[in-house]
What we know:
The complex is a heterodimer. By secondary structure, chain A is an alpha/beta fold.
Amino acid sequence: MNAEWTSFLVDRLPELWLRVGQHLVLTGVSVAFAILIGVSLGILAGRVSWIRGPIVGAAGVLQTIPSLAMLTLLLALLQRIGAVPAILALTLYALLPIVRNTITGLGGVSREVVEAARGVGMSRWQELRLVRLPLALPVIVAGIRTAAVAGVGIATLSAFIGAGGLGQFINRGLALADTRLILLGAIPAALLALLVDFALGATNWALDPRRKTGSRTRTKMATRMAAIILPFLIFATGGFGYVRARPDITIGSKNFTEQIILGHMMALLIEDHTNLKVDRRFNLGGTMICHGALVHGEIDLYAEYTGTGLTAVLGQEPSADPDQVYKTVSREYRDRFDVQWLDPFGMNNTYSITVLQADAERYGWDKVSDLESWAKGLHAGFPGEFVERPDGYPGFQNAYRFEFGQVSDIDAGLMYDAIANGEVDVIAAFATDGRIAAYNLRPLVDDRRFFPPYHAAPVVRTTTLRQYPQVRDALEKIAGALDDRSMRKLNGWVDQERRSPESVAKAFLRSKGLLKGMQKR
Amino acid sequence: MIRLSSVSKSFDGGLTYAVRELSVEIHDGETLVMLGSSGCGKTTTLKMINRLLEPTSGTIEVDGEDISQRDPVQWRRSIGYAFQGIGLFPHMTVEENVAIVLRLLGWPTAKKRRRATEMLELVGIDPEKFSRRLPDQLSGGQQQRIGVARALAADPEYLLMDEPFGALDALTRDTLQQELLSLKQRLCKTVVFVTHDIFEALTIGDRIAVLHKGELQQVGTSEEVVGRPASPFVRELFEKPAKQLAAFRDVL
């Protein structure tokens, strides 16, 4: 157990550093912005009393917006993923404590002192700079400290929109149900929060104007300077690694197992067959986030499904003809987004009417229409979405001209267990789910070709292909090599057997002889 | 010379007056004490001279020039002001406090230093020992001296002092009063000194202006206000402590 943990940690140490660096940049930059804006607003509110209420109110409202909602909102507004919307969101969150403490700090300077400042002939600016701000500084820094510590925590969510940071581990851990990965993100984030808290506490101590003493020895001055510089040092060293890494190709993925495996496969192929440097920005929120990132050039490619491209991205009616769907998305993506669909991997992750392998053998079920004469006595468990969608059960009844005796709505994640436990006889499985193999299930052939195709294929920016033509050659090596059965097996290895998506991707590519270099990375 | 002509100040749009129709002249080189109980308008008057407050009506002239025509910030830098309750900047060292007006006037560092040291010596504070300390680390009397040093640092022609010794014990106050008297003779400043303490007024003032409820009761030398009180209020004001003194002598 211990050795396992050690190797787990050692393997991920380089990435851990990168993520810590990203995390510090996200927090540091956003807090720096929040200081600039927040202190200015605080000063303004101190001078123009009627705007104080609205400013504090607005900052308060911003803080009550749930973090994920805020990120998604900014994503939609800015039309891009990555550090920019994340930093903007973190900045908005950091405003309240800084504005409030600036107002409190400036207002807390005694009237007597302020009057003396004016009386000796200070201009308003001098009064602020020489008297009010220095005296309010401890309170302001306390606000910054609150903001920064909270920021370290909230920054874990920015991985959701591809901004990296320690949240990347947490997201991946959640997508793969891997506690070790979650802890690998959560524990360093907590430690970072403590470190930032300590560093800013030290700064506050050093900046306290009342702590100046008669004896200013060199060591005392040095300690004080160190305490002021400490947080900058922490943010700067962390940030260094972040800025340094400049990849040639950035690959994205959505946030579920199959997407991560496909992402790794594409990354491994490019790394193996070209000498380009690849950045993996996986676990982006969902289809629209990946698509937006691709169109805006934040990622160069990811794996998309033809059906998803047709309906979710292009907003067209579903169609059952795979060739036509592929042609449509290829043409529309090229014209509208300047994005190319490369040759599909082979597997088709569509809905699939699935039964127990044992039942299929006993009753001789092979195609969906084989169920017709048994349907009255069968209990089906379908996801709610499938029951409602026109390309789901309603359309199914039209195409196959029969219905099941009993249909229950059931959660998409639970239906596999339901059929394995004999609670239902038929489910609408996702064709490449690892549990089909693991639970001995049998997807039936869609002989009326009713279900729309969801063939996965790399979607790549045209400009990227023009700049690096070798990317197309590398990715086309896998075209058609990955069928539903193989994909199910790979998904199962990750989901049920807890292997890492990268090792699974590598093992598959090797078994197909698609990797030149056999050396371990 | 500072001349106040029919100066009034109301904080509530004319319902009540903190100072009403005050006319008084402060001659060059004299110390005029404004005497009165709290709320009589003496601090308000001082703030109007400093332009921390603007009169509701009336004019204040300095050497014949209306000060409302002057830039208030520049004007404040040109006069010394020792504040009620001291008003030292708690985050600045003694030296920085003394040199603050010089800093605002843009003096070079070395010159500021030298001047601050001079000022500290003038008010009897050892610069070696105290110039790097913060005000909090000083006694009340020492802080008050720093306040006076600060007011004097830019060598202003006029010095405004608002109960500078009000918060001190009797012994310290007495010492500081004596020191102020000797300072006054050496420096030859025009001083406006606000106090509610009759003995302080009699000790320090060349002339005394007695204020009551915002109105000037009488202005004159100590002999004049004590010997020939212009109103029943002034008479009572000086009679009461005289009786107390007599009673005190009887006890002795």
